[in-house]
Amino acid sequence: MEEQLTGRPRLGEKILKGAFFCCASISVVTTIAVICILAFETYGFFVEIPITDFLFGTEWTPLLQPKSYGMLPLLCGTLMIVVGSSIVALPVGIASAVYLSEYASDRVRNIVKPVLEILAGIPTVVYGFFALTFITPMLQSIFESTHVFNAASAAIVVGIMVLPMVASMCDDALQSVPDSLREGAYSLGATSFEVTIRIVLPAALSGIFASFVLAISRAIGETMAVTLAAGATPNFTLNPLESIQTMTAYIVQVSLGDTPAGTLTYKTLFAVAAVLFTLTLFLNLTASSVMRRFKETYE
Amino acid sequence: MKDNNLNGRHLLAKIFRWTCIAVTGFAVLILGILIYQVTVMGLPWLDMQFMDSFPSRFPERAGIKSAFFGTLWLVGLTALFAIPTGVLAAIYLEEYAKPGKVTRFIELNIANLAGVPSIVYGILGLALFVRFFHLERSVVAGALTMSLLILPVIIIASKESIKAVPQSLRQAAYAVGATPWQVIRHHVLPSAIPGVLTGVILALSRAIGETAPLIMMGALTYIAFIPEGPMDEFTALPIQIFNWTARPQLEFHELASAGIIVLLGVLLIMNSIAVYIRYRGTRSKM
Amino acid sequence: METNEQKSTVLDIQNVSISYGSELAVRNVSMPILEKTITAIIGPSGCGKSTLLRSLNRMNDFIENVEQSGNIMLSGQDLYESGVDPVEVRLRIGMVFQKPNPFPKSIFRNVAWGPTINGLSGDIEERVVTALQQAALWDEVKDRLQDSALNLSGGQQQRLCIARALAMKPEVILMDEPCSALDPVSTSRIEDLLFELKREYTIVIVTHNMQQAARVSEYTAFLENGVLVEFGDTDQVFTRPENQRTEEYVTGRFG
Fold first, then answer.
1. B4 vs C91: CB contact, 8 Å cut-off?
2. Cross-chain Cβ contact A193/B31 below 8 Å
3. Domain range spanning residue A89?
4. C68: which strand partners?
5. Could you tell me the pTM of the whole model?
6. Residue A151 and residue A12 in one domain
7. Residues C34-89: pLDDT tens digits?
8. CATH top-level class for B49-285?
9. How far apart are the C-alpha atoms of B82 and B72, rounded to whole Å?
10. What span, in angstroms and rounded, lies between the C-alpha atoms of A152 and A144?
């Protein structure tokens, strides 16, 4: 008996595929929802407050009289956290990665890498606690003028927090530099320092750069540690020993109170979050495009 | 002869090497101090009374019962929402989606969502679930927000481990006349499951530790009861810790460290399970 | 063919055994490397020929768990004597690898890198030009020395790596299957180049390609399972081998 090949429609398979597609598209829906919500409320905010006042004003007092909506102090606070945490995390992260990738034995690597992963998973509120109960008292014993809430303590702790991520990503970048390059350099009579600094690090540069960009993005978005340690005073200052307020800490401050929807204060949440979202989105896109090109180089 | 200054260069190499080791050691030391600090402060407070009491104005009567059970509820519901969605999305992207603009757009989207600050998810939760869908400050609203937050993590981890399943396995199954779903169900998923589980556990750990989105949604309220259903109000461990840390009195800081010990303990257990699964997964493949 | 007596020994391999952990890769090998000749090391894959080659400029130092016994004498001094600096060994004994491994830098900087970090005397630019000329690459790249080396073809990259080694003016150049990743045309260019180079340099080349060994080398060593089965004049090894295993290998009966 001969059977013909029929185009049997497999309905079950089609339904499954459709359901799976819906799951995958939730991410797109999420992004659209975030953008729409932020855009809608931010638009409402800019109807009442001119955008230039918001972006370039140097007074941020939406919860006090007289109200003022210049977000530069918040931006400045966030910037201090970014700079401070970068000073801590970037050099230490690279040095640890160099140790792990170029010097440590496989045994040490196999222990340290999972530990880094676990450290990267410590909740941020724990780091905030650490800043307040350990770093701030330490700073106070060195610099007497240190306030209880200060930018330096928060910046240091954010640096410690993003360190595992930076170290881990830099290590990956160094590891993806082929060993043949190291051998080539050694065969020309180079020392380990020369091989690392002049061949391996330059070859891994874009991967390292991507980790820096992501670290900055994390520092901008970091919330709990800066809320606990840096305070809630939107000072337009560059003194790291004074209390400041970051964009994220402001959002927390407002949501700790009871703010009815539709008020101007409620809308400031979305305006500030829109700036936060735009900045981090830009940084993340940069990092992922740099990373993609880096991976293409060595694959 | 040649002026290659080898002594100086070797010295430099040695200094550099030891600098790297010292810096790494210093970083490890700092983290050691963190753990030590928390343990010393919190351990005396950690007892049954602490585990079995509700928050209180009086430190000696305060405990984390409502926060602990709140966290359990939150994670349970989050797992319920996020795991199936995330794994199925990963299956779609790896097994069904044709490489093209749409797929690349979805993948780029997921990668970027993974980097969006958690507080932005809080805003989304506040506007969407709390206000728009009128779920108020319920566990379900919190879990939905957390699900969106950890979805990218689950999808990315699952995709990686599905991708690692050798193509030859799929071809062998297709060659005996299996449909795509049969291939996935009987061959791809069983091989990918250790990696998927590891990713899922790490993602849930993140949901346990996240504080900002819950605060955004207004979960920082005095709760002296255990949620009995998904629509009840709740509090969670990190929120309780935040609350205690934000108070000036030393006793509350000590309570906060006791809370941190519990939180880190839960996370450590979950991480150990993940490491164990991965270890078993790599061993069975050998 | 020249006779042995006219040539002096540059490298003398004496009773060398090398093991990775418990696995013995090279067993008690002794052979001389003569000045301004090409010595080919042949043998089936996994026979330890690369391991032996890499021991000649201490590149095995980077592999964990490697143990070595015996002596490798370079003008009367043992390379593995305590106090000998491996960096200095590699300054005098250069290497070309299996796959071309140019640095992700410009063509010029690739060749200039070794002399620069080692502070070699003289005009660096002149060194680079000479090395590129010796490597028969100069005509192809003279107008684009600042281009990235990664834009060169595979064969050009390998000649660049040879130029990079030549720029150090080493006493010995080790080549680890330098043509295995190249097409036939590039391979024959490199073989022509080897003929030129042996006027000035001592070369040790590992190859699995027997025709190549027969064409380019004066001396041939046949290694099997880490044991040096036969060492002698290339002519003799290929036409009148003393050992039966050698005969079977060079006539293509296994390998």
1. yes
2. no
3. 72-298
4. C18
5. 0.89
6. no
7. 999 999 999 998 889 999 999 999 999 888 889 999 999 998 899 999 888 999 99
8. mainly alpha
9. 15
10. 13
